[in-house]
Amino acid sequence: MRSIDTLEQFYEIMSETRSTRRVLTCLHFRNEPYSDAHIAPLKEALLYLNRIPEANGQKCLKLDDKKTILLDLTYEIGELKKDIFFLEHNEPDFFKMLADLHDNFAKEVAEGVNKLKDIHFKAFITDRDGTVNNYCGRYASSIQSAYNAVFLSRFAQCCTDNSIILTSAPLDNIGLVDLSVSPKNAFIFAGSKGREYFNKEGKRCQFPIAQEKQNILNMLNEKLGNLVKEPKYLQFSLIGSGLQYKFGQTTIARQDITKTIPEDESLAFKAIVASIIKEIDPENKFFRTEDTGKDLELILTIENSDDSQELKDFDKGDGVTFLNNDLKLEMETGPNLICGDTNSDVPMLPSAIEKSKDVYSVFVTKDDALKEKVRNTCKNSIIVSEPDILVTILNNLAQ
Fold this sequence. Notes:
This protein is of the alpha/beta class. The protein folds into two domains: 7-207 and 316-398, Rossmann fold (3-Layer(aba) Sandwich); 211-313, Alpha-Beta Plaits (2-Layer Sandwich), CATH 3.30.70.3080. The protein contains 13 helices and 16 strands. The strands form three sheets. An eight-stranded mixed beta sheet has the order 8-7-6-5-4-14-15-16, with helices on both faces. Strands 9, 10, 11, 12 and 13 form a five-stranded antiparallel beta sheet that branches. The longest helix is centred in the N-terminal third of the chain and has 23 residues, at 7-29.
């Protein structure tokens, strides 16, 4: 038996579940047999997580000898439970489990399948967190579930020519590829809003950045790295997205989805980061800052494509265009499927529609304003309420 007392031990055991899930995903995907011994490490991990001491309904872990942190482990525990059930039962029973967890599950799945059936997509481009993966309070422990990987990989294999996970997160070094358990070559992984990707041969490809801009981004990264080494600010590197060095962009968390940080501390930290940016970029020439309420996205500017002299931040629409050109996706021939869950995913839609009018979209949201924006942007749009509903629709289309 192991005791999970520290945050470091917690991340260690979550990393171990990734290896187990990768093996089980490949075996299940290929319809090859696996035994109770294969599943046992997931059961042990669930046991260890459940045994972590609680305070105020949250799990209590040590940051160091002096400080502890309270964590909501709903994602980690919930996805382990779902994986174990998925691997030990048939799929109709698993769908019943999901229906018990999500309101209107069967109705939304049926409607989505009906609208997308019999379509083979030239390109399937989707965001990850909140879209095809349930939200987690910490990016570093948001390991993809085996059932999720099986469902998405089936769709990628049967219903698309090219399938791409496009996220604002880093590509590796605690990034997108480190959290995925999908079979090899099922997806092309694109990080940093599409500025960088690994192709199916494993080669890293990147959107070009001027050396002057890279130098100033390096300066920002050094200052932020030193900042979160200070005991007072260490917590901001350990919650939510933490400190992520991306290609052409840096993300620093100021809050997480369970509001671990008191709001006054979060806003004070935001002000400190803003002062650092002002110090190194006083004329706002190099950076644009996007505050999601949880993360501060510090993004290098690019020239606007409309021939104006204005600078803009690199968004996911720019990422779609770069990937289409660099990978020769031929999105112009359509049809294409775009999936997202936030306003930052919306730029993918007009970017895809510019290339082909034959575009479908599925957005995961309960936000009425976002629903309206998506529907006004893409006529062939579907709205669902949960990532599990979207991945089940995709799985059923493949079946």
